[in-house]
Amino acid sequence: MGLGVGQLTMTSSATDLATSLTVKVEITALTITPNIGWMWGLDGGGLFWGVDFGFQSPQGAKTTLTDPFNDETRQEYIDAVKQGNDLGSTGFPTFTMLRLGYLF
Q: Where are the domains of the chain?
């Protein structure tokens, strides 16, 4: 069993070629990843291998939207921030197919 904690960051941008306007979105969230797995190795240390399963659970997603209009009252801006927060709050399972290491 194990637990990982870190910050998840996703960044995206789009440019309208007709007007050359660029919008950038950055989503950050504290992410907790509990996992459980199996490990096999040689007696007395040495090489080992293993697999594990887990779940990434983002907490408190925050979306930063940079657009050329900088108008936080526009409905498009509000919708984009809500969709970013929804995406940043979505958890998903993880699977490590092969873990290699060396035990002393």
A: 2-103
